[in-house]
Write a structure and sequence with these properties.
mainly alpha, Poly(a)-polymerase, middle domain, two-stranded parallel sheet, 21 helices, globular
């Protein structure tokens, strides 16, 4: 990871320092690629610390500013987190120790604020707090921070974002009346809500089909959804939030495929679009990013992304979802139904794994074993093809098998045979045991031809 961070390229941005007298003539170095590498390498506890820091700042620190400015930014939180991770052994960052980790991060942030010095994690000479606020504002911020340090967790109960405070109180049995007011979940409720969320996920997949597969078509869809979001009601805004991320991923993948064809690199524009779509679901968008990194030769980055996806993919609750087949209601996981009834449509991105679909124009973003799927039509097939047969030109695969397949290919490239064999074992296991796979035959074929193992 250090080797990649040191060798990767950076960008020059036409933004000067606030503390400088010649800001109009200055350029800022942006190390976003190295930072993205670091973020993908965070474990779940570190990610939770980052999210909780942002929630705490929004609720308790960056409030009632006359100029409506967030003096302590998310980037500062991320920078502080990086410094804290670098200064503490990895064994500290465990979920059972999350309050202590969060307390350490807030304490470090308070010290930065006290000294008006928050050094950029990679470029230490760049002080993120230089010229950021006046002495009066600094005093206000320190006063607000003083109510949080030492951090005992009580302040979390007052956070309204995602109903965090209320959910914590319910979980800790501190709000018994909520238990009485909430109807008890039964098997029928979980079945109905699970089926509703599954059908919603399939609707998302159907609607975000990219038509002729052109970049122009995709961009037009995103522009329309943006317009609908601004003018729409609550339900329309929810629909747009679900539909836009998969489209952003496809746009990024199309641009990346063009980049790879021209000069075997991936542009910052492609990565920005892909990053905007990472939260479409549990796995598919991140798998596209890992696939692109592998195809462009950045196997080390792919190896960083894939374990994070595997950690997020909770097999006991996550449902694979595809528009290519009828969802079998008999096999809906109980955990999936339970979370669907508790949290509604917003939980889709945490418990649904869309299939990974590559269109013909994305051919440079997939390993060669999967490229054959794009050329399965014979001349006779083309003559009799209907409007609904466009999928024949696509390479479509379920998320979890593709995760293990990419791990196999990546670890093979990096000459890590033990992890490579583990990935192969997991691939074989998921093909045999996951009940709701839509493209099982694709998995069998790719396991044989992609790995050279005659185990299937």
């Amino acid at each position: 990871m250090k080797r990649y961070a040191k060798s990767t390229k950076c960008f020059a941005v036409g933004v000067g320092s606030r503390a400088s007298e010649i800001a109009a003539f200055e350029w800022r170095l942006s190390t976003s690629l190295a930072e993205r590498c670091l973020m993908f390498n965070l474990n779940i506890t570190q990610i939770k610390c980052y999210n909780l820091m942002k929630m705490i700042l929004k609720k308790y620190i960056n409030v009632e500013n006359l100029d409506n400015e967030s003096y302590i930014s998310s980037f500062m939180c991320k920078t502080v987190l990086f410094h804290c991770i670098a200064s503490k052994p990895s064994c500290v960052w465990k979920e059972c120790n999350i309050l202590n980790c969060l307390n350490y991060c807030l304490f470090t942030l308070n010290n930065c604020l006290l000294n008006e010095h928050c050094p950029h994690f990679i470029d230490h000479e760049n002080n993120l707090m230089a010229g950021k606020f006046s002495a009066e504002v600094k005093q206000q911020l320190l006063e607000r921070m003083s109510t949080l340090i030492p951090f005992d967790g009580i302040s979390l109960f007052g956070i309204p974002i995602d109903n965090l405070g209320e959910r914590l109180q319910v979980k800790l049995n501190m709000k018994n009346e909520v238990h009485h007011a909430m109807p008890q979940q039964d098997e029928y409720t979980m079945t109905v809500t699970g089926n509703l969320l599954a059908e919603l996920a399939k609707d998302v997949l159907r609607i975000v089909e990219i038509g002729d597969g052109s970049l122009e078509t995709l961009l037009q869809k995103v522009i329309k959804l943006k317009r609908y979001y601004r003018a729409g009601d609550m339900l329309e805004k929810t629909a747009c939030r679900l539909l836009v991320p998969p489209l952003c991923t496809s746009i990024g993948s199309l641009i990346a495929s063009q980049n790879i064809q021209i000069n075997n690199t991936v542009s910052s524009e492609a990565l920005t679009w892909i990053e905007a779509g990472l939260d479409s679901d549990v796995a598919s968008s991140r798998l596209k990013l890992a696939s692109i990194m592998y195809c462009v030769g950045n196997a080390e980055i792919a190896a960083l992304i894939l374990p994070h996806i595997e950690e997020q993919y909770k097999t006991e609750v996550t449902e694979p979802m595809c528009d290519c087949y009828m969802f079998d209601r008999r096999y809906c996981k109980k955990g999936f139904g339970r979370l669907s009834s508790q949290y509604g449509v917003e939980v889709l991105k945490y418990i649904v794994a869309f299939c990974v679909k590559f269109f013909t124009l994305e051919i440079n973003c997939v390993p060669h074993e999967l490229q054959y799927e794009m050329f399965r039509s014979t001349q006779e097939d083309l003559l009799h093809r209907g409007e609904d047969d466009d999928w024949m030109d696509c390479a479509v695969v379920d998320s979890l098998p593709y995760l293990y397949f990419l791990q196999y290919k990546t670890y093979s490239f990096l000459q890590r045979p033990q992890e490579q064999q583990q990935a192969l074992n997991k691939l074989e296991w998921v093909i045999r045991t996951e009940l709701n796979l839509a493209h099982r035959e694709t998995e069998f074929i790719r396991t044989v031809h992609g790995t050279g193992e005659q185990t299937c």
